[in-house]
Each structure stands twice: as C-alpha cells, then as structure tokens.
Design a protein that fits this description.
Radius of gyration: 21 Å
Order of helices and strands: HHHHHHHHHHHHHHHHHHH
Number of strands: 0
Number of domains: 1
CATH class: Mainly Alpha
CATH superfamily: MFS general substrate transporter like domains
Shape: globular
Distance between the termini: 22 Å
CATH topology: Growth Hormone, Chain: A
Oligomer: single chain
Helix content: over 70%
Length: about 425
Amino acid sequence: MNSRKWWICGLLLCASTINYMDRVTLASVARRVIEEFSLSKQQYGMIEQYFGYAFAVGSVVFGILVDRVSARWLYPAVLLLWSAAGMMTGLAGLAGFGSAFGTLLFCRTLLGLFESGHWPCALQTTQILLEPKDRALGNGVLQSGVSIGAIVTPVIVGAMLTSAPGSWRLPFLIIGGIGLLWVVAWIYSTREVQWDARPKAVREPFWPAVAELVSDRRFWILAFAVSAINVPWGIFRVWLPLVFQDPHGLGFTEAETLGRVLPGYYIMTDVGCLAAGWATVWMHGRGTSVLNSRRVVFTVCAGLTMLAMLVPGLSRGDLAIPGVPARVAATLVMMLVAAGSLGVYPCYYAFVQELSRARLGLVSGMLGFLAWVSGSSLQRPLGAYVDQTGSYDIAFLIGAWPSIFAAALLWFAWGGEKEA
C-alpha cells in the first residue's frame, strides 16, 4: 500500500499540473489577447480579479462539500468542469459568443470557481494517505505540479502560436481536453483507498464547528499567512509574462519568454517546492521538531521572496551584480524569488492539516476564501497603475514583503502545540 500511496500522490501532482496549465494559458498569451481585443491593463487585471473572487467562493463551497462527499468522486467532477471552462476561453470573441471582454470575464470566473475544488480534495487525500511526518513532503509533491504546469504551458503555447491572428485560441482547446485522461487514472487508482477512514464531519453540527474554528487563534494566524503568501504568487503569475516582454521591463521577445525565461522561472518554483518538503523531513530526521522544521523552511523561503524588491533596480542598472549584465542579474534574482514564493506552500498546507481532521475541507475552504479575496483585490488596481505609469515596479515591491511577516507570526504567535 505504501507504493500506492505515493502513486496517488503522483496523480495529485498531475492534477495540480492540469489545474495550472488551464490557469496560466491566458497569462502566456496575455500580450496577444490584450492587443487583439484592445483591452486595457485594468481590464486584464479585472479578469484576473474575478477569477480570484470566484476561486474564493469555490474554496468555501467545495471545502464544505469535500467534508461530506468523498473526494474520489468530487475530485474528477470539478476537474472536468474546470477543463470545460478552460476550453470555452478559447472561443472568446467569436461570433455568437458575445463580446470578447465579457466572454473572457465569464469563462475565467467559471474557471476560478471550479479550479478551487482541487485543493480541498487534494488536501483531504494527503491527510488520509500520509502520516503527519510525511505530509509536508506529500504536499510538496502535490504543490510541485503547479510548477510543472506553469513550466510546460508556455512551451506548449509557444509551439502552437503563429503569426496568424487568433492562433492563441488552440492552446485553450488542447490543454482543456487533457483532464479526461486524469479522470480515468484517478478512478482506477483510488478504488482501494479507505475513504471512510476520515472522521464523519457530516454528523457534527455545522455552525458550532465554524464557531470553534474561528475561536482558535491558529486559524487567524494561518488566515494572515495564506493571504500573505498568495499576494506575491498571484501577482507574479498574472504580470510576469508581460513584464518579461515589456521593452521598459526586461525586454525579452515572446519566443524567449515562452520558450526559456518563463519555463526557467517555474522550474525554480518547482525546485523550491520540492526542496522545502524534503528539507522538513531532513531536519526532522536530525532531531528538529516537526513544528520547527516547518517554521525554519518557511522563513528561509520567505527571505528568498523578499529579493523581489531588488529586481526593478537591477533591471535598470541602478543596482548591479559585478560582472553580470543588468537584465541577466534581474532574471537570476527572480529565479531565487521563484523558489521562495512557492516553497512556503508545503509548510503552510501542513499547518492547515493540523487544525482539524474532521473539518479539513471547511478549514482549507475558509482560508482559501480569505486568501483569494485579499490577493485578487490587488489585480485591477495594479492594472490601472500600469496603465497610468507604464511601470511594473510596484508589483515587485508589493510582492516582496508579505511572506516574511507571515513567517514572524508562525514563530511568535503559533505556540508549541503538539502536532496531530
């Protein structure tokens, strides 16, 4: 059964990959879509803002559902639904599908709603399959799929793009259809998992459980933590493809961005994610408590994320690394930021799993709601700022600081409770 557990964790990785492939396809073709439909950066930010708001609502809805419905069946259902929403995005602006902006807004909202079901289902699965000491590693495997999806998507998209108008549509249709294969593998592989081993939350009064949860100070610590770490991750996901290609930013071509720079960035997020999960296991094996292992790794990753504030100065030459060209220096620093910005997540998920066994879906859903509302609310104002100034500097400054404050809270406010 041990090998089957890690095989299923591999399927979770694949689900995260598909989830992020559908999510970042728009960012990969954002420049073309903005130009073809004459969108402002504020409109583009609004599309991503509503994606985030829908994700926030879905986090609660699917978080509650997964406490009542086995993830074995809920998981493939939401995956098929978000895949359909991704495919529909490729039809935006065509005759009979409404205005381009309205269709994009609608499809991205649906995508955010259904993609949110991935995380409650996946966290319930790792909680059932893995012991506490292995969960950060299992969550690292799960989360690394985000990076893989983000790595391969620009390459796939770049291979499909041509000089013809509308060639950006095909990737949405192809990537959206990949989920069918995963559904078959999931249903077959999970047939022997003891899903009924999880506590029966449905038998417990709902509102008293909510009251108990929000009265726990650790819930509010994690609410701040996930809101903090979601800000840099969300900002960089949405705006980096444009920053990399902007003549006043890093000035890479579309081919360079999709074929080399963006995949390199997300390769480093994957390295950071897997390294964070491995490091907690390594530290615990050498005598550090599980709790402190997570806090140390979270803090190191938060420190790497802070380096984002150096990127604007490096790109313009106001700051310099001796012997390294300005654009190269800025790109290298962003690779370190990449590792840190995703490396915090496996530790965060492990903290979440300690709050409640019976109500994991509710816990992750409520935390996800707070994170996505806070982070997504920045996207439209940031787009308006870019329209007015032509500068993306503020994105790097906003993204640099929140994670380190979350690390401080985990050290000084979480306490020394024994892990479940």
